[in-house]
Amino acid sequence: MTVMNARSASPDRSPGRPFIRTAAPAVAAVLGLLPLTACGGDAGADDGRVDVVASFYPMEFLAEEIGGEHVDVTGLTSPGVEPHDLELTPKQVGMLSDTDLVVYLKGLQPAVDKAVEQAEAEHVAEATAYTSLEKHGGHTGHDHGGEEGHGHEEGHAHEEGGGHEGHDHSTEGGGDPHVWLDPVRYAEIAEGVGKQLAKADPEHEKAYRENTEDLVGRLKTLDDDFRTGLEGRKTDTFVTTHAAFGYLADRYGLHEESLSGVDPASGSISAAHIKELHEIVKEDDVSTVFFASRASDDAADTLAQDLNLRTGVLSSLESVDDTGTQDYLSVMRQNLQALRTALDTQ
């Protein structure tokens, strides 16, 4: 599905008053300046749409899909920018005070959290208010006894979602923030955003409710696709560079092992952790090391070479390369296909 990006839509502008052919040249010249002056304002300033500021791509997608033609969405995080490290410009901070609705995920971007608190926007949709957070990571080994698929009575013991020893990978003690990678939790967030949009713009409450129901339905289909698509797999374990996929693993009975934690800059990778990954890869018949983006990772490359593993891409969807040809749903289905290949589904 191709998503219409609300930010790229041209605001409706009333055509300028036609010139009177019999007017004096001086008057015509003055009138000719008026359209130029009107175009100097902010895009979408007086077009009747609701101004929405979204913190990063998953929040933008919700606002655009639910708001449709009634919203003008501005994202704070540009494609290719690491959301965790975002620093806001004074202009962006000012936007948070002036916008009709802020959509963000608390705990992921400290600069956004601080700016939203200071802005005191009238309407705010904060993602973690609509779903539960879990802690992922901090394991000391692995034991698959309670998961779907195979189990190990002996060996290591781990917590859900991967990570590596010596780090607490929760966000500010509140849990792993990557909830959007679970379609079910993401649907819960969508419902919350829809309700806040209706509060900010009661005139179009029916449209927001219908758009929310449509999006939730598509996310339910995505969830069904993951469940059926991952049946008959030969292993539950996948290895990533960045432990972003704990919620996805929990939802579908998988196990994520990772080189780094939930925060990609959470710390150095110890030799003991690399040794442990070697053991897990061999024991669980792992075939692939996933990069969370197209950027290479020296530690992941070394692991793949040492163990003769393939490398692949599993998008954390913190951004997409091209919103004109990709969206959350299409990239998640690419993730599903990548997992099907790596887990050797039948």
Structural class: alpha/beta
Low-confidence stretches: 1-45, 138-172
Largest sheet: 4 strands, parallel
Give the ordered list of helices and strands: HEHEHEHEHHEHEHEHEH
* Total beta strands: 8
- Strand % is 5-15%
Spatial shape: globular
Strand order in the largest sheet:
2-1-3-4
Evaluate the radius of gyration. 24 Å
Number of helices: 10
How far the N terminus sits from the C terminus, by CA atoms, comes to 27 Å
Q: What is shown here, in short?
A:
The protein is α/β, with parallel strands linked by helices and 346 residues long. It has helices at residues 25-38, 57-67, 90-98, 110-119, 183-200, 205-229, 246-251, 271-283, 298-307, 328-342; strands at 50-54, 71-75, 101-104, 124-126, 237-242, 255-260, 288-291, 310-313.
Can you offer a commentary on this structure?
The protein is α/β, with parallel strands linked by helices. The chain is built from ten helices and eight strands. It has helices at 25-38, 57-67, 90-98, 110-119, 183-200, 205-229, 246-251, 271-283, 298-307, 328-342; strands at residues 50-54, 71-75, 101-104, 124-126, 237-242, 255-260, 288-291, 310-313. The strands form two sheets. A four-stranded parallel β-sheet has the order 2-1-3-4, with helices on both faces. The chain has a four-stranded parallel β-sheet with strand order 6-5-7-8, with helices on both faces. Helix 2 links the parallel strand 1 (50-54) and strand 2. Helix 3 crosses helix 4 (110-119) and helix 6 (205-229) runs parallel beside helix 10 (328-342). The protein is globular. The protein starts with 24 loop residues before the first helix and ends with a helix. Mean pLDDT is 79; it is low at 1-45 and 138-172.
